[in-house]
Amino acid sequence: MNRDEMDRMVGALRRAQELLNGSPGASDALRPALNVSYFIMESGHAHNFEDYLATFRGAPVPVVGAFSSREELDTWLRAHPVPPPRGAVELGGERYTLGYSRKSGQHLLLRLPSAADVRRPGSVQEQERLWLALDQAQAVLHSSPEDLKGLQCAALALHFVQESGCAQEFEHFVAHFDEPSPPLCSFTTWEEADAWLKEHPSPPHGATVRVGEDEFSVGYWPQSDHRVLLRAPTYEPLDDVEEEDEDPAS
pTM of whole model > 0.90? Predict the structure, then answer.
């Protein structure tokens, strides 16, 4: 997910919240949709979602293959221990994208909804308020194609969270939005972390990992296959900095 897509999604939802201010509960019900883009970016699922979104919109994502059954696909995957880092899959007449587990690097099959079902992710009853609020948001934003595109992206992102197996993690993220997220992985040594980064088919860009007592952010650029662990910045209390800056002779 790029920054423009994220801004479009968040902007559309914030405008909908303003327009629905008089509708009891609708604005608050949109919170998960508003936060889902931040979750995808911070959790390291950005590259997985980019392909998911592009395939849904009919963009030219590489097609891995078409398979009549899951058994046939699993046979193909076993014959290709390192499958392509990205791509679309047709399985039994339905569309999927090939993603990767953020921790293990194992492949994930992410089923795409139809255009008619994009705002209805199965029968998750506890989310009914959210999907009703998205219907209301579509109604108040109907005159803005750009905002409707942002709403569709948010709805698809909620599908993605379900398909990637991150529903409980996302619920915790929404409930504790203002708290720092725990590291995705922890390693005892730098060598362990470096081996994980090099062996991962699609490192989770933006995710945080811990090496010893230090935290690092994962950087991954698929076009160049450049991989790096960037040390998270640390901040000293302002009082300590001021004391250190004082002239000892004064």
Answer: no
